């Protein structure tokens, strides 16, 4: 116990020092943690190190499970199922073939191919946390693909962790795993809401309830003889964060995630040893499959499903790393003596490298997208995009509205009431479907793409209104050579001031506008210009009108 506490203390002390330096240069935390692990000497024995890695993964998988909200993923489920399944089959096939060419036996080739096929939901979604928060299309695609791949990974864990490879043992493991997931669904649908009500709004009870459910499901997985990661994943699915007064739970989970992220990624770095030539060759092959072939395959699959090039590229750049579930499979196989030590070390090395390179592809995603989009083979979706667009050929002096979410719906309604010609631009198929019902002119495409601008008639419009709080998009729109006024959206006042300086006619900062309106309301109330009764009546009426508008606009806008 003393050795373990000392190891954890050293992990956090060294990590904290390096994080201070990294923060000054805006370096992502994952590479810092892994490099910390590479720098530290072996802290504890290998058995305890592997145990720490598994527990770190389990707690992070739990947080991922909590963050999965199926209702937000419904719109892209069909596409993500296709992309996840096809990419696993294609990369798994290439990986298995490459492993055999390297001289691996069948079982080790399977472990190699699994590492090549599955992507890390922990790293990938940490990199696009903001995109998921503001509900961007490719953020939902990445989250949904990861969720489907994690379900595939759970099946593989149950099969490969069976005590013996016999039909009865595999069937028993699968049965226990499915049972845990079914219990999680039942708890989520029928029990968790009751637990929230019984907590009476107590922050402490909410956090203890979540931790208690995690421990309960982990105990259940231990009793069933399956991986604790499966129990942790089921516990996460049993909890929904979509309820009022959820701030304490979210803050508690963030702290939990930060704590175990440090443990897991530092331990992952510490597992990397000085590689032999054979390990380097196997790891390099795995890295090529993951960092180069996997994004190419993902891009083609998304283009085939009708998505435009930028969405396909940005989605693929969040799937180019080894999955934590692949690490669990490799660790369990190593403990059971089923995987060759060199293959295990190659998977560990490839994991560390790809989790670092993945942060680099995220940082330079726009540059990589522009490089890839130069090649005609990656622009095959434009024909399908044109088929889903409709703009009158003689349209001019119109308004181009980018994004048909909550704000876009309201702006579209105002334009309709004023009988203004409007072109809606969105790359979310379902949001565009709702725009198609309300408006006659619409473009399916990415607002960053010049071809989308051409279809929307930006050269002849008089106003461009972007409802998307994306600084890169806002700055790109302000670079367009057009006489039209440009209105954009920002989350922060300092960002808004920069956009004003770059030529924006107006910058919508929702928090700032809301605070101004609240200040005016308080001033009117204190000055006696409004009574509490009229204030309450006006507020209630406004909320009811907004609720009706959002219900008419579709479930993803609520």
Automatic annotation (TrEMBL):
Positions of the UniProt region annotated as Disordered: 538-558
Family annotation (Pfam families): Na_H_Exchanger, TrkA_N
Matching InterPro entries: Cation/H_exchanger_TM, Na+/solute_symporter_sf, NAD(P)-bd_dom_sf, RCK_N
PANTHER family: CONSERVED INTEGRAL MEMBRANE TRANSPORT PROTEIN-RELATED, SODIUM/HYDROGEN EXCHANGER FAMILY/TRKA DOMAIN PROTEIN
Protein name: Cation:proton antiporter
Protein topology in the membrane: Multi-pass membrane protein
Transmembrane recorded as keyword: yes
Domain Cation/H+ exchanger transmembrane: 15-357
Bilayer-crossing regions: 48-70, 82-103, 147-165, 171-193, 205-238, 258-274, 281-303
Organism: Halalkalicoccus tibetensis
Localisation: Membrane
Residues of the RCK N-terminal domain: 399-507
Family indicated by similarity: Belongs to the monovalent cation:proton antiporter 2 (CPA2) transporter (TC 2.A.37) family.
Gene Ontology cellular component terms for the protein in this record: membrane
Keyword annotations from UniProtKB, A to Z: Membrane, Transmembrane, Transmembrane helix, Transport
Keyword Transmembrane among UniProt keywords: yes
Major site of localization recorded for this protein: membrane
Top-rank taxon, per record: Archaea
């Amino acid at each position: 116990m003393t050795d373990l506490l000392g190891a954890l203390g050293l992990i956090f002390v060294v990590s904290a020092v390096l994080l201070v330096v990294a923060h000054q240069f805006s370096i992502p935390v994952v590479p810092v943690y892994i490099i910390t692990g590479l720098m530290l000497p072996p802290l504890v024995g290998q058995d305890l190190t592997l145990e720490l890695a598994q527990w770190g993964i389990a707690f992070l998988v739990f947080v991922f499970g909590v963050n999965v909200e199926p209702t937000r993923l419904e719109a892209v489920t069909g596409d993500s199922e296709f992309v996840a399944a096809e990419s696993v089959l294609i990369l798994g096939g290439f990986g298995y073939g490459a492993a055999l060419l390297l001289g691996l036996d069948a079982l080790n080739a399977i472990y190699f191919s699994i590492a090549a096929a599955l992507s890390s939901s922990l790293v990938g979604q940490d990199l696009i946390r903001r995109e998921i928060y503001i509900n961007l299309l490719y953020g939902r695609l990445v989250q949904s693909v990861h969720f489907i791949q994690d379900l595939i990974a759970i099946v593989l864990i149950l099969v490969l962790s069976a005590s013996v490879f016999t039909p009865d043992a595999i069937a028993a493991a699968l049965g226990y795993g499915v049972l845990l997931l079914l219990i999680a669904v039942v708890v989520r649908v029928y029990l968790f809401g009751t637990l929230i009500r019984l907590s009476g709004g107590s922050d402490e009870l909410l956090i203890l309830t979540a931790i208690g459910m995690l421990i309960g499901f982990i105990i259940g997985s231990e009793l069933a003889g399956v991986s604790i990661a499966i129990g942790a994943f089921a516990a996460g699915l049993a909890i929904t964060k979509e309820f009022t007064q959820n701030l304490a739970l979210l803050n508690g989970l963030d702290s939990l995630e930060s704590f175990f992220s440090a443990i897991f990624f530092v331990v992952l770095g510490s597992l990397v040893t000085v590689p032999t030539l054979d390990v380097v060759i196997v790891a390099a092959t795995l890295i090529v499959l993951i960092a180069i072939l996997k994004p190419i395959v993902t891009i083609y699959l998304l283009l085939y499903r009708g998505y435009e090039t930028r969405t396909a590229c940005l989605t693929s750049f969040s799937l180019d790393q080894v999955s934590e579930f692949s690490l669990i499979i490799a660790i369990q196989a190593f403990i059971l003596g089923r995987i060759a030590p060199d293959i295990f070390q190659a998977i560990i090395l490839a994991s560390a490298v790809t989790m670092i390179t993945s942060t680099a592809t995220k940082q330079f995603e726009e540059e990589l997208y522009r490089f890839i989009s130069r090649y005609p083979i990656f622009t095959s979706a434009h024909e399908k995009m044109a088929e889903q667009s409709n703009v009158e050929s003689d349209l001019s002096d119109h308004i181009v509205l980018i994004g048909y979410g909550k704000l876009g719906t309201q702006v579209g309604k105002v334009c309709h009431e004023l009988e203004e010609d409007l072109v809606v631009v969105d790359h979310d198929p379902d949001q565009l479907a709702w725009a198609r019902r309300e408006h006659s002119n619409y473009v399916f495409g990415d607002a960053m793409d010049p071809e989308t601008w051409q279809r929307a008639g930006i050269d002849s419009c008089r106003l461009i209104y972007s409802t998307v709080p994306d600084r890169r998009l806002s700055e790109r729109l302000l670079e367009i050579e057009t006489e039209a006024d440009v209105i954009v959206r920002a989350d922060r006042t300092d960002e808004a001031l920069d956009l004003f300086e770059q030529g924006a006619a107006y910058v919508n900062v929702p928090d700032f506008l809301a605070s101004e309106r609240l200040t005016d309301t308080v001033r009117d109330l204190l000055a006696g210009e409004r009574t509490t009764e009229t204030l309450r009546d006006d507020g209630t009426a406004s909320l009811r009108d907004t609720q009706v508008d959002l219900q008419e606009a579709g479930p993803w806008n609520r």
